[in-house]
Amino acid sequence: MPRLAQIAVVAFIALGLSACGFALRGSYTLPGVLNPIAVIGDDSATRKDLSASIIRAGGVISDAAPLRLHLTAERITRQTTSIDSRAKAAEYTLFFELEYQLRYPSGLPATPERIIRLRRTYQFDNTRIVGKFEEENTLIDDLRQQAVAQIMTQLTRLNADDLTPELDTPTDAPSAAPSTRSAADATPR
Fold first, then answer.
1. Please, is 91 exposed, middle or buried when counting C-beta atoms within 10 Å of its C-beta (0-12, 13-18, 19+)?
2. Which of 49, 122, 149, 174 is most open to solvent, judged by the fewest CB atoms within 10 Å of its CB?
């Protein structure tokens, strides 16, 4: 096949892939409404990984951003999945749960709170304990990266129409709505 024909075939394939929306995994483009954005939460590895991912996607991290991504809770738990003949753990399942929400600087929510739940099962050999703890840490890092990838995917699909409008009422003003507490709730305990 002549060289010019090879170049034409490669160009045609590249054009076809880009036209169908194909993008390499991990390559994101943030919508304009999220640029700049603030990432709020504990000084955790997840926050650092998410901030780095936003920057790689061409985003800007700024404390003065009109929207803030709050990482409200992160939980990692381990549960015994199976035991061996000596009643020792033979398999564990790691559960990773991350809650997050986009909010305005006033604290009002811009989107509903979302929860990402991931799990991973691994074998545990009591004769190789040191290596298994390293494996567990590697799995936790992998779960964290998956959660960051899911958040980035959801952020790239966000439109301005998806955001709840910010109200002009201050967040510390008393509510004008009547109380819905019952008499049983009002009694001192």
1. middle
2. 174
Domains and CATH numbers, the chain: 24-163 (3.30.160.150)
Cα 56-62-33 angle, rounded to 5 deg: 75
> Both tokens of residue 113?
């709170």
Overall pTM surpassing 0.90 (yes/no): no
How confident is the model over 95-154, as pLDDT tens digits?
999 999 999 999 999 999 999 999 998 877 666 666 667 888 899 999 999 999 999 999
Residues 6+ apart with CB under 8 A from 80: 89, 91, 92
**β-bridge partners, 82:** 91
CA–centroid distance for 72 within its chain: 11
Residues 6+ apart with CB under 8 A from 187: none
